[in-house]
Amino acid sequence: MTAADGLALVDSEDVAWFRDRLEGARGSAAALGRRVGLGEQRTAELVLAVAELAANVTKHAVDGSVLLRVLRNETVAGVEVVVVDSGPGMADVSEALRDGMSTAGTLGIGLGAVGRLADTFDIHSQPGLGTVQLARFWPRPLPPSVGGEPLVAGVTRPIGGEQVCGDAWAARTDTDTTVHSVRPADERSATAPDDPVRPSWSVLTGTRPFGGKMGPSPRLSSARPGGSGRSSMPVRAVVTGPGQGILVMSCDGLGHGPLASLAAQAAVHAFRTGGARTPEQAIEQMHRALRGTRGAAVAVARIEPDGRLLFCGVGNIAAAVVTNATRSTLLSHPGIVGHQMHQLRSYEHHLPAHGILVMHSDGLSERWGSADLAGLLHHPPALIATALLRLAGTRRDDASAVIAKAAR
User: Fold this and answer.
1) What pLDDT is recorded for position 224?
2) Is the omega angle on the peptide bond into residue 209 within 30 degrees of 0, that is, cis?
3) Beta partners for 314?
4) Rounded to whole angstroms, how far apart are CA atoms 205 and 227?
5) Within 13 Å of residue 114, how many CA atoms lie on the same side as its CB?
6) pLDDT of residue 270
7) The CA-based dihedral angle spanning residues 116, 117, 119, 122, taken in that order and rounded to the nearest 10 degrees
8) pLDDT tens digits along 33-72
9) Are strands 347-350 and 308-314 parallel, antiparallel or unpaired?
10) Cβ distance 201 to 207 under 8 Å?
11) Which residues of 2-34 are buried (b: 16+ CB within 10 A; e: fewer)?
């Protein structure tokens, strides 16, 4: 969706990953283009681009994958293709995009032609590390509602052997201009740990109250490496600022498979329809909506137009503000949304104009730093999220990463 004052947000749905049989991406792209209404000519161009990208990966890359996604705003749907591999990378990206540089064994149209076919094309490559490419296709003529790079984007990947993912993310704008405050966290009663008429999932499964998705004890944010950064400050009374804010949510359903996916999708629905203005309110609404499900780890951030960032997390969702020089880790509380939460409290940070907010599930290791993303910060959020997934993701669990930039 595109907000009235120009803040661009686009809903996305990860349709299919192709890893071992990349040739299957071509047929799936054709079916997807027809399904979303791209039109015959535009679908043919999408298929041509996917075939070229997949052929490049098969011929030259190591551990390459193709992801097909559906994008939607308030009026139209499109298709996004994300291609990621682990090497050998390109020494000169501009040379690879030059016409006539199609590599042997591909269809021969070259990456430059793929870039001209797509409405948006972006690429990041590093020798020895690999390449991430993003191509976006909208119907023609290009609808007026399509404009500007989305400020928030994420990517999800199910555990090996599963067709559905128990991780999810979502973003929306807050268009209410009325200043609203919430009672201080220490003046509100803690959320009831469990519904007396429903048994606790931790009791049913033997999950320890502060283990697994519930995460470690709360920790204050720290800036690492190479910079002081700003520490998070607990907010006694959450007050939203003037103008239009962006709310971003990351969710990890307990476990994996269909039941974890149901919990994650219930959280997404509650987040999108609940109308909460603050992270605490959003998590409280999701807590009620996830009763009867496995429950989930959830984190919600609100980004104000001036860069003020309010954050509240429950469970093992990692979150950080990242610049070229620093990574400032944000506070998260123990608990399982939908089953057991302690007193919620928001923390305030600052999102610099050229920084990003990163949130990811425990399907990604936290052993990454600002230097790993420093060369990526000017790229679209979806490309950054995919690069982080390649760097830190594990195939032993569902994995997701969401990236948000400040409006500027």
Assistant:
1) 47
2) no
3) 298, 333
4) 42
5) 30
6) 98
7) -60
8) 999 999 999 999 999 999 999 988 888 888 899 999 999 9
9) antiparallel
10) yes
11) bbeeebbbbbbebbebbbeebeebbebbbebbe
